[in-house]
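User: Show me sequence and structure for the first protein, then do the same for the second.

Assistant: Starting with the first protein.
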Amino acid sequence: MTLRLATWNINSVRLRIDQVARFVQERAPAVLMLQEIKCTTDQFPRAAFEEMGLPHLRVLGQ
């Protein structure tokens, strides 16, 4: 079994959500860690990540 971890200095997750979705579809990481999300915790696009198959989230917004 292979465990894929991915880290990404995203610099605004809301502006790049389509790129994230494409990356998740192509690379299928088990764990995706984003830094510099540039949003508060309540602004984080949780629903988009759940739709991508990443429902387990730990978000610490700015």
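Switching to the second protein now.
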Amino acid sequence: MLKTICYKSDVNKTLQLLEFEALFNQTQLKNDSHNITGFLVKRNDVFFQVLEGNPIIIDTVYEDIKKDRRHSNITEFLNTSIPQLSFKTFDIGYSVIKDVDTLYSLQQFVVNLNQQKHENSTLFLEIIEGLLSDH
């Protein structure tokens, strides 16, 4: 059994560039060591993240995120069981979405939500489009 959680949060405006680098490095190390897949995107003053993996580990990581001072105004969009991982080849690290495989993974995630008739699938698509847009 697997689980996914997706949320967005406001970035603490007092964070410096080096703190962002540290956050993304910590995220990658922790997620790699716990076999968590997904992605973390920062755009302007917003974090958007999808986590996937073992339900106990995902719940623990998410509780830590909710207590982390680097996040505020957390909005949870998805917290559910999933039959398979959508992002098993997707790096969580601090990276720019720049290749077709990454975009395809995001698209497949939204397609799967649409097929499951998930209430937030349209919202996910809008958020992802906003994160990828230069406007």
